[in-house]
Amino acid sequence: QRSAVSSSKRSSLLRIVAVATATSGVVYSTDTGTRISMAIPEPFQISQSLINRTEQSLFGNLAAFSARVSPKPEAAASNDEKRAHVEDSDSVKPPSGGFLGRDTIANAAARIGPAVVNLSVPQGFHGITTGKSIGSGTIIDADGTILTCAHVVVDFQSIRQSSKGRVDVTLQDGRTFEGVVLNADLQSDIALVKINSKTPLPTAKLGFSSKLRPGDWVIAVGCPLSLQNTITAGIVSCVDRKSSDLGLRGTGREYLQTDCAINAGNSGGPLVNLDGEVIGVNIMKVLAADGLGFSVPIDSVSKIIEHFKKSGRVIRPWIGLKMIELNKMIIAQLKERYPMFPDVEKGILVPTVIPGSPADRAGFKPGDVVVRFDGKPLIEIMDDRVGQRIRVVVERSSKETVTLEVIPEEANPDM
């Protein structure tokens, strides 16, 4: 009899091992029983030859769970107990400790979803419509203000003529509106669109991109390839990807890099954290690669919106310096090559001073290392202190410390 019971237990365990093996799980035992832990992936991939042979991947979360196997079978639960268990599971909060819950991503998508809209802009020539520009946007104010990309709603070649053009807006619930472009900034590729509604509009909450870390989970929401209400998930790959890394010379900007699936039509849509807050605006992807998408950080977008409200445009200071931000590695290399290089831990190297610029008139010289801008470690790119005097502390190769005063001018918006 003992042998039969032992054989029965071994058979049950073998069946469990087979299930765990089929689902890439792991089986281990303890002194008081047997514990099984397994992860069930649900991969599903489809390919479409719609735009540049873009591939789309639809995937499910990895659902990790563990089960306790008792030497004695448990009694079957009653229907009431099963119903109570289901009701309790719906109200369970995501587990703490950095783990994703079953509904974590779904809950974030549900919070942001109603505020995400589809944008369609008719394009034509001499009054003849030849096509449409399709993109996404996010309602950020109950008055109908929509945040999106400039390249979705305006013509970069003739922004002054088309910036007040018509924009067709479709909400998630199917309602349609005719919107107008309020503001557009080409350099940042950020724009605001306005619609008017007699009924309340759903709005999204803006978060803080400065709190992001590489590896944080995010979701992208929008209308890729005109497929409305599409949600993709991924992680933050880099929080400060330089525009120079992407070959975008002269812009001096930083982007959030993610591996969320982003395609044509996602432009202008929100990048969202697991709290359902907008932490970026999806702006572009690398066509020749998978999982390389880029977003404008919401902290930068918030400053742009402030400029729009205050001046109707983004005001950027210009002093006429080409600058290279220094780090410890670059400083070590420069000191090894040039023994007279200033003894600094950080700063901005000035390789070029534009003749006739405010910096040239203030006395900047090529090779200067800027260590303080008006008491700040680095110049505030989005600062609007045009016409205001700024004190700058400079270290020179001759071990000389110089304080200069420069008055920024407004940068040419067409540059």
UniProtKB/TrEMBL annotation:
GO biological process, one term: proteolysis
InterPro entries in alphabetical order: PDZ, PDZ_6, PDZ_sf, Peptidase_S1_PA, Peptidase_S1C
Keyword flag Metal-binding: no
Presence of the UniProt keyword Coiled coil in the record: no
Biased composition (Basic and acidic residues): 79-91
PROSITE patterns hit by this protein: PDZ (PS50106)
Matching Pfam families: PDZ_6, Trypsin_2
Domain of life from the UniProt record: Eukaryota
Keyword vocabulary terms for this entry: Hydrolase, Protease
UniProt GO molecular function: serine-type endopeptidase activity
Region of interest (Disordered), ranges: 73-98
Domain named PDZ: residues: 345-410
Family affiliation: Belongs to the peptidase S1C family.
Protein name, per record: PDZ domain-containing protein
Natural source organism: Brassica campestris
